Amino acid sequence: MHVRTVRGVAELDPALGVLPHEHVVIDYRQKEGAAPPPTLAKEDDCVRALKALPPLGVQAIVDCTPPGYGRDLDFLRRVSERSGVHIIASTGTFCEQWSGQPAWVRNAAVEDLAAAFIAELNRGCGVIKVATSHGEATGNEIKAIHAAAQAHRETGVPIVSHTTGSLGIEQAGLYKELGVDLEKVLISHVCADEEPPEYAIEIAQRGAFVGFDRIGHTSHSDDHWIQLMQKLAAEGLAGRILLSHDSVQQFNGPEAIAGHTFSDISYLPESFRHRALEAGLQRDIFAQLTIANPLRWLASNEVK
């Protein structure tokens, strides 16, 4: 299958994996126009981390950093070329509760935001990233979701939708109301806080992909994620699960967030895979979660 990456349209191998929620660089200073360009040393560090993935069966990552937070398409392109790992970049916006919103988001109408997203998709991005804050979505976040839905309807490009401990069910409902194909929606960070398994089950039953994408973080043990995977698989919902780390290789931002970052992008396909199989998860199910499912979500991400 063919996927839009930072190096252009690439053919992905149906037998190799994809990590659907990672970050190469996050830099909050860029929102105010003050972030310096990444140094060669940082580029080397990112290349070194990603080079470990192909021997573990991973061919691509989705970089979920939106514009204004350190995302640099030229930098990602160089890292991709040097590491041999395909990178699918994100347009879109981020969680207002954590970071505010840049003026270009605050001052734009839905139609303007949708046009901005589509312009970035035509520049080489392959997914649309939006987000909601904890407990209640802000007006700007709802506006961005409407814009993402409009851009999706016009292009067919998939959406990755950040949650902050809640609102995944509400997000799935809103996307459906807005005419979005839920097969193209990844609800991120599901059960990464204190949500019960039923929360993930309802999102999956509505037809969206469920992101168990904080694997390796100290906030939850591997057993937490393995039990969730087994629970959803027992409900016949293995086809709705995506796995990732939400890792970041280079971070510059608030200390409160920095203390929760995770950088070992090889953890899931190596250590976690072994633990999941030892715990009784079937090999074909793990392959479905890490290969078939993300490829299905990304399918036809080329702009129409």
Structure explained in plain terms:
With 304 residues, the protein is an alpha/beta fold. It has a single domain, classed as TIM Barrel. The protein has helices spanning 40-51, 73-83, 96-99, 103-106, 110-123, 139-155, 168-177, 197-206, 222-234, 255-258, 268-278, 283-298, and strands at residues 2-5, 8-11, 17-27, 58-63, 86-88, 90-92, 127-131, 159-162, 185-187, 209-212, 241-243, 248-252. A 6-stranded parallel beta sheet has the order 6-7-8-9-10-11. A 4-stranded parallel beta sheet has the order 5-4-3-12, sandwiched between helices. A two-stranded antiparallel ribbon has the order 1-2. α8 links the parallel β9 (185-187) and β10. α5 packs across α6 and α7 packs parallel to α8 (197-206). It starts with a strand and ends in a 6-residue tail after the last helix.
